Amino acid sequence: MLKDIIKKFEKIAKILNLSEKVKKRIIEPENILDFKIELNGKIFPAWRVQHNSLLGPYKGGIRFHPKTNLEEIKALAMIMTFKTALMDLPFGGGKGGVRINPKEYSEEELEKISRDYVRFIYQNIGENKDIPAPDMGTNEKIMEIMLNEYEKLTGKKSPATFTGKPIEKGGIVLRKEATGLGGAIITEEIVKKLNWQAKKTKIAIQGFGNVGSYAALYLFEKGFKIIAISDSLSGIFNPEGINIKEAIEYKKAIKYLKGFPGTEEITNQQLLSLKTDILIPAATENVITKNNAKNIKAKIIIELANGPITEAGEKILLKNKKIILPDILANAGGVTVSYFEWQQNKENKIWSKEKVFQELDKKMKNIFNKVWQTSLEEKIDLRTTAYLLAVKKLVEKIKF
Ligand code: NAD
């Protein structure tokens, strides 16, 4: 993963003819906190990577995952640097993690891990220094605990130091929905560009978790035909369209999508190669590879998951004239609303749902149109364009 992201950056560095010194300034993390947390005699490796602060305080989630490692955290931190730069947010990039399977531990044990984590990093974070958020395996409850520990240790109130908090602790409305919503807003924009009509546009979505389900719901409400959705167990398909509101209720009750009335069961592989206009991978990384890219029939692929297409897969897709909306743009709705939360806390205000939606809508459309236009002018694909704009912004700030 780290190699892939560096490769993407190297491609841009070549276009911009960047010196080795400048390249190093962007590739190398500025600071790495590498430590171990102990719980009941067991040791859990943990990290906070503060990748780049050229544009502002480090911003990025903390994940609790049994397979996470320093390489992965470094890669994710670097992606955050590009994402915040592209989205014109006053933030740099960071990421944190603990190698632990949160499903195997009680709430009390996770609270202890979370408090210990903050004890290791609290001198290096803060509302103008580094602003963590939830990621895989962490949630608003953990952010509340971490903020509480941070405020205890520093002796001052500082809600803007963590985003993704519960609303009553300074969190923001629509944060949960933000990533899916942002991706859906971009989907509507691209459909407009191609002069397609919502009700005639078919969409297949892989992954029906936080991101996939909100994207599906918003697009369904806008009249798009969602012909397939899936979770890790299986996919469901109806060429006439699935009622997403009912599918959400069904999944809540049954835990899986399988068996949803009026649909045919398909595999996650079959979903990817359906006859659809738009494909939205919203589950996990590396699902479109050199082995299945040739089977993809969708004209547009919107990367709501991080890194769902491998490099070899992408080559095939581009050769087949597919339009790929890259992750650093398509799933940036989450960090954008985190920025609103931070602003809201710093100004000691509470943003309304309307305001959050309007501002998110404005931001996503604005950056999408900038990327689209530049891609046409420069005759380069959307991913290269998005990285190019992000890297240019960083390079402008470098002073030696
Ligand atoms: P989630 O855990 O809520 O949902 C993931 C969904 O994918 C679930 O429905 C799960 O069953 C399904 N899934 C898991 N593995 C699968 C597989 N191998 N094949 C098919 N389906 C599978 O996670 P999420 O928060 O919705 O995140 C999804 C993706 O979006 C991840 O790549 C994440 O990094 C990315 N992302 C999330 C956010 C956010 O704000 N949550 C922001 C940016 C990017």
How would you sum up this structure, described in words?
This protein has 14 helices and twelve strands. By secondary structure, it is of the alpha/beta class. The chain folds into two domains: 29-82 and 89-167, Leucine Dehydrogenase, chain A, domain 1 (Rossmann fold, 3-Layer(aba) Sandwich); 172-400, 3-Layer(aba) Sandwich (Rossmann fold), CATH 3.40.50.720. Helix 1 (2-16) runs parallel beside helix 3, helix 6 packs across helix 12 and helix 13 (353-378) crosses helix 14 (382-397). The two termini are 29 Å apart. The mean pLDDT is 97. The structure holds nicotinamide-adenine-dinucleotide. Nicotinamide-adenine-dinucleotide (NAD) binds next to helix 7.
Task: Please summarize what this structure is.
The protein is an alpha/beta fold and 400 residues long. It is built from 14 helices and 12 strands.
Overall residue-averaged pLDDT value: 97
Q: In DSSP terms, counting alpha (H) and pi (I) runs of 4 or more, how many helices? A: 14
Strands side by side in the biggest sheet: 9-8-7-6-10-11-12
- Major β-sheet profile: 7 strands, mixed
Secondary structure tally: strands: 12
* CATH architect. name of the largest domain: 3-Layer(aba) Sandwich
Q: Which ions, cofactors or small ligands are bound in this entry?
A: nicotinamide-adenine-dinucleotide
What proportion of the residues form beta strands (DSSP E)? Answer: 15-25%
What does the radius of gyration come to? 21 Å
Q: What are the secondary-structure elements, in order, as H or E?
A: HHEEEHEHEHHEHEEHEHEEHEHHHH
SS-based structural class? alpha/beta
Q: Regions with pLDDT < 50 over 5+ consecutive residues?
A: none
Number of domains: 2
Would you give the CATH topology of the largest domain? Rossmann fold
